[in-house]
Design brief:
The protein is an alpha/beta fold and 452 residues long. The chain is built from 13 helices and 13 strands. The strands form three sheets. It has a seven-stranded mixed sheet, with helices on both faces. It has a four-stranded antiparallel sheet with strand order 10-11-13-12.
Amino acid sequence: MRYLPLSDRDRGEMLATIGAPDIDALFADVPAAARLSGPIAGLPGHASEMAVERHMARLSAESLTAGQVPFFLGAGAYRHHVPATVDHLIQRGEFLTAYTPYQPEIAQGTLQVLFEFQTQVARLFGTDVANASLYDGSTACWEAIAMAGRITRRSKAVLSGGLHPHYVGTAQTMARFTGDTLVTAKPEVSAQADDEALIAAIDAETSCVLVQYPDVLGRIPDLNRIAAAAQAQGALLIAVVTEPVALGLIESPGTLGADIVVGEGQSLGVGLQFGGPYLGLFGCREKYVRQMPGRLCGETVDADGKRAFVLTLSTREQHIRREKATSNICTNSGLCALAFSIHLSLLGGEGLARMARASHLRAVQAATALAALPGVAVVNASYVNEFAITLPRPAAEVVDALAARRVLGGVALSRLVPGQADLTHVLLVATSELTTDEDIAALCAALAEVLA
């Protein structure tokens, strides 16, 4: 949609209608110190559309994109192969401009898609039920904390040090307004996840325990043990999955005792997308379904006895009184959910397992090669397709030096947890089925050169 500016006459008519003498009067409540007194310094003047397009194209050409160079970034956003079929199908008119499912008589297609998506997520997570998606992984994480508080009538959540710092930050932001107490910890760089410290923090006031699976360093915590410790105190275990492809290789959190499982669905169907839009996943035990936020599509029969789909147990603010809603931020990501569902349907269970296994084998190959470099050590005792290494130099400097050599070599942990000295030398490395022998060789050669 092109921007069509108003004429002076248009503006005059609008100002006259609202009784304002001029445009400046619209900003009378903004403090003078916060207003611009002239052009923004350094911002160029107006240019033609073609000139702006050429300028932006030149700037874009200076960037390294995921498909251009060896790529080992992860830390909550992963690059996997997305079949062309996914993009082709989601751009069909009936999907791209689908009618909102509030009126089931004209939205059966949309409702069935969401019903199938829920089924896939529930099976992937090992939960009894799943909703029709949430906004993204980090807000789904907070929704789980709020849900646990409603169920247990407690307001203290214990967060693992292995939980992604951005998810922790989202929870802390929301807790400022709800009064919930969050017990947090920084990531500990050791061969094992912080299971012991986490279990020690659980008490009779705890509503829930949050554990990332695999965690932010790629380690695989013992969910069975943590679930038993949490539930012994009457608390719920919330498992957070930022890389759903990993569940093609390791056991589902729900089968290991998790009461609520949430996560990010980006790596299946959605792609990196420059940070969004992404896809929140949410599943739980059936006995907690009435406290689950978001939309839930159910299967029923119509007046003629034919199979039909409807929204059910709707407890979001659009459906009931706002003060009674389980959530007021639970926007679902319908098109991203469809992309996820199409990709997972194309893979099937066996295909997902092969994808996870291929990603894992590449991680083993990369970890073995990197560990052979002087000064480099692998932190993890276990991992799927992401692991952490320690370097003899600050990881942020190394990442920049690798990028200058056209290798996107990983994510410096200090970027996620700034200011913690013991984490400055830690680099997170992720692989996928797209990683090649040549990519791993290029990473090792560039890293050896940078560390020399």
